[in-house]
Design brief:
Strand order of the largest sheet: 1-2-5-4
Structural class: mainly beta
Largest sheet: 4 strands, antiparallel
Strand content: 35-45%
CATH class of one domain: Mainly Beta
Distance between the termini: 90 Å
CATH topology of one domain: Methylamine Dehydrogenase, Chain H
CATH architecture of one domain: 7 Propeller
Number of strands: 35
């Protein structure tokens, strides 16, 4: 072979070798990049092995890289199966269950292999699994009805009772949306009531019982009462009542406490008597204006206000969507003999569209104390018939669908008045207080019943104001 051809062949071989080497280097580099881009699950909440996680807890997954979200959503399996929604913020996935997790159960989670980062060049994740256990549902309440009350809870399965406050003279309370934090009003040495916060989780962790409720607002001789906390726990609305020189009290006013800055702000008009604050899940505050005879609905962020005309002024209830406000309203009908009879029907207010709907139908009844189940599908309420044939001493517990259909009674105890209705978080039960209208010396009784009316159980004599907590 001529020398020239040998040289050319040798040069071509060197070029091929160089090209192959470059390809291998690039491939190796890309492999390293792909491997370094392989996502990892770096944190989960609730943590694996956690116990007593609240039944309302959200589940969060934190990844090391921005993810191809569809590949994650499709591979996340939850046992037992529960419906919910996925939301993403950067590389954090949050799963919000559509209803509370089953209480006292182990929740198993599996992220199947194959989820990828958003980068086109990455290895898929390996499969992972973990689990946590939810807390059992308990019933919080005030006791006793005949003296200085404190906050307690009861495990309906075991009968175990837990005391949260001690000798504080609690007037009333509400809880955070997850049921883990109590906000309450309790008496002080000046004859007024102050506002407090109690974190049940911190109390649980304090083995030496050193944890004490946190004082949020000192009100002196004034009454700060009916605390209602917003769903995001940014604000606490309450009634503020100042004593006068004559010894009487001034009209109640709705005020709001910023729970971050602890600054206070008057919400209702100074010359109006305003009471009964309640928050919607969407952040709207409703309260009753007795001077204007209507509910005021205010958006604290925009200061926009809507008035819902109402003569009765009974406490109302928000739907779980925040779309409707349900409250009793009085009306008058022509009875036999030409006399007028007052009735009370449940009116559903569409807050945005300013429309109303009578949910009680054509009945001569007194319907009050409506409450939506957490899934928004059902309503419990107290009903008393006013016609001679069906009249009873007390109101009975009824249940109906959220659209007003299929109303039917749960209790049938003519001498007892039923009130303080409270849904369990899974919607299978509710608690209530009953009081003997024919024997007024008897104390109120705290009961629990399944939503089909079965297995009614007396829980606490002298207990009242029930709320379900994790």
């Amino acid at each position: 072979m001529p020398a020239g051809r040998i040289i050319i062949f040798s040069m071509k071989a060197r070029i091929v070798i160089i090209v192959i080497g470059l390809v291998l280097i690039v491939a190796a580099g890309m492999g390293i990049i792909a491997w370094n881009s392989k996502p990892q699950l770096i944190d989960v909440y609730p943590q694996s092995g956690a116990v007593n996680a609240p039944a309302t807890t959200l589940m969060r997954l934190v990844f090391s890289h921005a993810m191809n979200r569809e590949t994650v959503n499709a591979r996340l399996k939850i046992e037992p199966v529960i419906e919910g929604t996925f939301s993403w913020e950067a590389n954090i996935l949050t799963f919000t269950p559509s209803k509370p997790w089953p209480g006292g159960k182990e929740i198993n989670l599996i992220l199947e292999a194959g989820a990828r980062a958003s980068s086109w060049l990455s290895f898929p994740m390996d499969g992972q699994s973990w689990s946590f256990t939810t807390s059992k549902a308990a019933l919080a309440y005030l006791w006793p009805s005949y003296g200085n009350a404190d906050i307690y809870s009861l495990d309906p399965e075991t009968g175990e009772i837990r005391q949260f406050t001690h000798g504080m003279g609690v007037l009333d309370y509400s809880t955070s949306s997850d049921g883990m934090v109590f906000y309450f009003a309790a008496g002080n040495s000046q004859g007024g009531t102050d506002l407090y916060r109690l974190d049940a989780a911190k109390l649980e962790d304090s083995a030496d019982s050193s944890y004490q409720p946190e004082t949020l607002l000192v009100c002196g001789s004034a009454q700060c009462r009916s605390p209602a906390v917003s769903y995001d726990e940014r604000y606490l609305a309450y009634e503020y009542i100042v004593p006068t020189l004559s010894g009487d009290s001034s009209p109640a006013q709705i005020w709001m406490l910023n729970l971050t800055s602890l600054e206070t702000l008057s919400i209702g008009q100074a010359s109006h008597e305003t009471v009964q604050p309640s928050w919607s899940p969407t952040g709207l505050l409703a309260y009753y204006d007795r001077t204007n005879s209507g509910y005021q609905v205010i958006n604290p962020a925009t200061q926009e206000r809507v008035q819902l005309a109402n003569q009765t002024g009974q406490p109302g209830a928000w739907s779980t969507s925040g779309e409707f406000y349900l409250a009793s309203e009085i009306a008058y009908i022509r009875a036999a003999g030409g006399t007028e009879r007052g009735i009370s029907h449940l009116i559903r207010y569409d807050v945005q569209n300013q429309t109303t709907e009578d949910m009680s139908g054509e009945n001569e009844v007194e319907d009050v104390e409506a409450s939506y189940s957490l899934d928004g599908k059902s309503i419990i309420f107290a009903r008393k018939f006013l016609d001679a044939e069906h009249w009873t001493f007390g109101r009975q517990v009824w249940i109906m669908n959220a659209d007003g259909s299929n109303p039917h009674p749960i209790t049938d105890e003519a001498d007892y008045n039923h009130y303080d209705l409270a849904w369990s978080r899974d919607g299978s039960q509710f608690a209530y207080v009953r009081f003997n209208q024919a024997k007024l010396s008897d104390p109120p009784e705290l009961w629990m019943v399944n939503t089909d009316g079965s297995n009614a159980v007396q829980l606490v004599i002298g207990g009242y104001s029930p709320t379900w907590i994790p």
